[in-house]
Amino acid sequence: MDALHALLAVQERDTQADQLRHRRAHLPERARLDTVTTELASIESDGAALTVERDELARRQAELEAELADIERRIGDLDKRMHSGTVTAARDLQAMAAQMEAMRRRRSDLEDAELEVLEVLDPLEKRVAELQDRWAALDREAAELRATIAEQEHGIDGELAEVVAARREAAEPLPAELMTTYERLRQRLGGVGAAPLVGASCGGCHLTLSAGALDRIRRLPPDAVATCEQCGRILVR
Asked: How far is CA 41 from CA 29, 135, 136, 141, in A?
């Protein structure tokens, strides 16, 4: 195989390697993992804020329940005193009755306040539970995606190692000057530095060469380097 056709073999290996690297970097599971990770972070942020609000409401509910329990005890104690027969003075009984009425109003206010807290707390707790369930499901999915990505990366890396080794073997006998030119063109022209001449067209840019350019190329010695007049790639004929 002459140097130019060997260079085309190197280009084929480089193209295969580029395709494998692109596939590795753009696995569909990787894109999904990015989406899942973003949603997990959003849930954690939302969940933290809702948890703080829920805990504050739960603390307020506990305070109301404690005060209700205390006032129920005081109402019970006062009721026993009023009906025990130990208090007989009309003025004392009236004062106790007024105190009893005040405590009942306070109890009613506390019950209304607790109801208001519960009306907010119940849906909030439900929302927190929903977020926790969603987070758990996404966390499981993220773990599965990472495992799948690792498995696919391992397979691609194996293929890539084989292609790189074949490329190294193909490039070994080629002249250093030719390889330098090829690498410069490859870097500048989207990974393709050498292409076959297909009829009258460049296999790299797929444009048709002029009749004059084709005539000049045909007159070159077989081992001379020809380039596409359109894109500058090395043409293998």
From this structure: 18, 9, 12, 14
Helices (H), 26-89: 28-82
| Ordered domains of the chain (ranges, CATH) | 3-171 (1.10.287.1490), 176-236 (no CATH)
Tens-place pLDDT, residues 220-233: 998 899 999 999 99
Tens of pLDDT, residue by residue over 19-76, are 999 999 999 999 999 999 999 999 999 999 999 999 999 999 999 999 999 999 999 9
Phi, psi of 89 (to 5 degrees): -70, 130
227 neighbors 189 (Cβ within 8 angstroms): no
Show Cβ contacts of residue 29 under 8 Å, excluding neighbours closer than 6 positions: 145, 148, 149, 152
What is the model's pTM?
0.71
**89 CA to centre of own chain:** 77
Q: Where are the beta strands (DSSP E) in the chain?
A: 194-198, 201-202, 226-227, 234-236
| Dist CA 118 CA 115 (whole Å) | 5
